[in-house]
């Protein structure tokens, strides 16, 4: 069977080479000379003369066009399936002969490749990165270089140019309605922390704090925030200490601000 497959491949290769010679040679004598050299070389390599004569006789013949409709039998390739396919074709021919239906059809084995490790690991499409909608970012974050507290008449320069994705930082919340301020700290990104703040305000959680009480009245749409300071090497204790310093600088303790009168330990969120 392997030998027959090889002969068929040799037949196709040799026919394609002869057709190429036939197209590019403008003179018949040139074609005959090229064919003679090719056949002579192949003869020394073990090609049978009968085989070469058959190719020479049939390479210009048009392959008859099949008018039968094909019924594909799709399956994964396996040498053990060859007997199964042969049995299906024989049974189909028997059915056609006895019932006289589907006489213009034939069964065609259509193999599909088995999946390999590459198919399981490599995807044509990249997974979409999880991005927060731009409107969610724009609702609360705005970088400010200078911070001015209208109640204490104090001005301070922020110590970093943060974004909504800055982590391990001290941040400032300002009410756009009344300009009251709140200083907080977080180990996570500002976006994650504000998701928690928004949940508390919209779901009325933690209503014992001045921050939640205030924005229950003025609404989440009044929230705006900026990063005051960040340091990727901060420990939780250092971050809380920086938070207390900013509370004192901006004087955001209640009633002038929204922080508790005596800053208490805040969980590192």
Automatic annotation (TrEMBL):
<dbReference type="InterPro" id="IPR035901">
    <property type="entry name" value="GIY-YIG_endonuc_sf"/>
</dbReference>
<keyword id="KW-0732">Signal</keyword>
<dbReference type="Pfam" id="PF01541">
    <property type="entry name" value="GIY-YIG"/>
</dbReference>
<dbReference type="InterPro" id="IPR000305">
    <property type="entry name" value="GIY-YIG_endonuc"/>
</dbReference>
<feature type="domain" description="GIY-YIG">
    <location>
        <begin position="166"/>
        <end position="242"/>
    </location>
</feature>
<protein>
    <recommendedName>
        <fullName>GIY-YIG domain-containing protein</fullName>
    </recommendedName>
</protein>
<feature type="signal peptide">
    <location>
        <begin position="1"/>
        <end position="18"/>
    </location>
</feature>
């Amino acid at each position: 069977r392997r030998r027959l497959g090889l002969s068929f491949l040799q037949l196709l290769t040799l026919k394609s080479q002869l057709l190429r010679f036939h197209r590019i040679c403008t003179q018949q004598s040139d074609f005959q000379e090229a064919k003679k050299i090719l056949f002579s070389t192949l003869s020394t390599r073990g090609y049978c003369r009968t085989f070469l004569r058959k190719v020479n006789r049939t390479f210009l013949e048009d392959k008859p066009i099949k008018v039968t409709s094909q019924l594909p039998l799709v399956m994964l390739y396996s040498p053990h399936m060859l007997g199964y396919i042969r049995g299906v074709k024989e049974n189909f021919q028997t059915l056609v002969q006895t019932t006289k239906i589907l006489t213009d059809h034939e069964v065609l084995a259509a193999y599909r490749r088995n999946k390999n490790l590459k198919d399981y690991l490599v995807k044509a499409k990249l997974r979409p990165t999880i991005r927060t909608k731009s409107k969610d970012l724009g609702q609360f974050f705005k970088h400010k270089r200078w911070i001015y507290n209208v109640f204490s008449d104090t001005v301070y320069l922020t110590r970093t140019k943060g974004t909504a994705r800055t982590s391990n930082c001290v941040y400032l919340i300002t009410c756009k309605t009344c300009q009251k301020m709140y200083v907080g700290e977080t180990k996570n990104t500002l976006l994650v922390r504000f998701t928690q703040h928004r949940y508390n305000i919209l779901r009325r959680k933690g209503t014992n704090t001045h921050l939640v009480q205030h924005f229950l009245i003025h609404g989440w749409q009044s929230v705006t925030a900026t990063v005051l300071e960040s340091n990727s090497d901060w420990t939780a204790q250092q971050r809380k200490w920086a938070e207390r310093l900013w509370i004192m600088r901006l004087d955001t303790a209640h009633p002038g601000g929204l922080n508790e009168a005596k800053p208490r330990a805040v969980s590192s969120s």
